[in-house]
Each structure stands twice: as C-alpha cells, then as structure tokens.
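YM 10:42: Helix-turn-helix domain-containing protein sequence, as discussed on the call
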Amino acid sequence: MTSTLDARPGPGDLLRGWRTRRRRSQMDLALDVGVSTRHLSFVETGRARASRELLIDLCEHLEVPLRERNTLLLAAGFAPTYAESRLDARGLEAVRGALEHLLAGHEPFPALVVDRCGDVVMANRAVGALLSVLDPAVLAPPVNIYRLSLRPDGLAPHVRNLSEWAGHLLHRLERLADLTGDPRLVALREELAEFAPPPPQGGPAARAAHVMLPLHLDHPEGELRLYSTITHFGAAWDVTLDELSLESFVPADEGSRAVLERLAASGE
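YM 10:58: structure's back
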C-alpha cells in the first residue's frame, strides 16, 4: 500500500514539471546552468541527487516562484531558503511604508495591494469610496478582488462591460495559474467561471473605442471608465513580497476623473 508521503512528487518530478511548463529542453536548460544534459536527466529521474545550489540555480533559470522553490527544496530534503513573513512583521517597516506611500499618492484614484490569489492586503481611501455602493457584509475581510468583481452579490451588477471584464479576469487567473502552478488559482477560476456571461459579440471591432480594456462601472455619482495597471516587487527574497502586487486604477476619460474627484471630496 502506497502512503501519502510516498505519493508526493519528488524533486526530479517537480523540476521536470517546471521545465516542461516553461517549455525548456534538458539540453537548453543544462547549457544555461552549466551542467551536462546527462546529469540534469539523472536529477530529473532520481538517479542523481542535486545540491541545494544547483536546485536554486535551476529554479532561477526556470523562474520558479519562491513558494514553489521552497516546496522543491523540501522535496529534496533541504530546509526552505525563502522566508514567508507577515506584512506587519518587524523588518518590513520600509516595505509597508513604501506601499502606504504609493497608495496614498495615487489618491483620488483607487489602488490596492493584493496577494497571489487576489485577497486584498491594503487599499487606499478611494477604494472604499468606490465600493460604497455595495452591502458592507460583502466587504467583510478577507475580500477577494476576483470574487468581488464577478459574483452577483458584488460588483457584477454594476459592471456595464461585465462580459469583457469577466473574460479579462478569468484569463488573468488562467495565466497566473500557469505561471505559478498554484492549484488555488485553478480552483478559483473554475468557481468564478460559473458567473461569467458569454463572450461579447463583435470581436475586435467592439473594442476599437479604447486603447485598453476599461472597467466600466455604474456608480451613483456617475459612470466610471477605469484602466488598471499592476506593479510587482523586483528581486523579492520573501515569499509574501514575491506574491504581492499593487493594482492601480486611473480614469480613462475626463468624466471619470471628475467622478473620482467628487467621491474623494465627499469623503473628506
């Protein structure tokens, strides 16, 4: 009888999975890392044991996220290399301060910090004003931006281009799941796909009015068309920071800018 422990993938299986996911050949990867193709093949099949340094080097070249690097190192019998800190932990004061500065500096436009799965970690005041149309019960933490955007008890009834926006978010989840190999993202996409309306008619012609897909919202203060940008930390060595992203929204037209400015003024 096979135990659960025995059924777990070994380091070679995980490594081969990431190499396949990144569409790299053994020869190509071996040349980049500076080992023989034969040795890399033996590592993947379990005939050779890779050192910690080699595994980390392979992960660097395969762009394996830090959480998954720790998983691979554990499978190989090594202690995890990358810490996973709480954002409010001592030592991250500079990071929190930088995020707070970025969020505040983006006002009166909405901006928020989310983790890999879209759970909101931090947000500026403009986000609260924007979401004031929703039932406060929906905003009880943890708030997930994907669920909040697509569920009928969230923003979905207020999104005028819901079909296009849902397609964009589901594609983002699919891409993130492919990049990270995180099964939570696969499950989240499957959950939310049930709420997505059919794709819009008209194809590219229907999108010609904008250079980017806007989030088009109905709000009591007026219509809002918002473009979004996403920023990540560079060279993070902590799992938490590696998985954080800052999503900022900017007005797509002067009317939307005016609405956001009115919302900010009313909240002061």
